[in-house]
Amino acid sequence: MPSDRSDSSSTNNLAGVVLAAGRSFRFGSDKRVAAFDQRDTLLSKGISLVAPHCSRVFVVTKPGDLGQERALLGEWLDHPDVVVICARDSERGMGHSIANAVAHLRDEEDHQGQQFSGMLLMLADMPYIETDTVAALVAAHSPDNIVVPCVEKSTESGVEEGIDRASRKKRGHPVVFGRRWFDNLEQLQGDRGGKAVITSNPSAVVEVLVKDTGILYDVDRPEQLRPRL
Description:
The protein is an alpha/beta fold. The protein has helices at 42-50, 69-73, 94-112, 131-140, 182-186, 195-200; strands spanning 14-19, 56-61, 82-86, 118-123, 146-152, 169-171, 175-178, 205-209.
């Protein structure tokens, strides 16, 4: 059975949202249930990265997954803090899936009688993100900001004279959106996802510099599940 949240994270009323409503066209089969290692599938790995830091974890699936929840989530389906959301508009793009998820979060808030401080948004096909990276993002979050991880771009000659340090940074995933941005997220449409909210509100963005290239690495094809050198 997956472990519960750690004591150090239990004070955060943060919602985890794992986006798993894609169609895996380039993978050739349902990549969510592809084996990542001896313990986890791609989807269960994503949930395990989020769960220690969140009071509730919402796994976003698509209408065609109804009745397949056990096959997708395995033992996570029995976890008391894990909820499956069916994104009714998932075929219209990631933005719609996020909007559907936020609407469900609001319903959950009404049921709990307590607001979430924010939303930790994880893509289900990014299993190489390090646990310390997620912890650093959660530690930096507040209800008013948007926290994104970034890594410095490598250059053959190292740090080049005259190049702005900020221009050599590349942003990745996951992202923590403070609750202030739930309205914006609920209005998303199409395929742009949360990036539209980030780029439209630069003053709210907090960048956390990490040495974790896993924040850039999503799995689109089976060969990308091979161990990286």
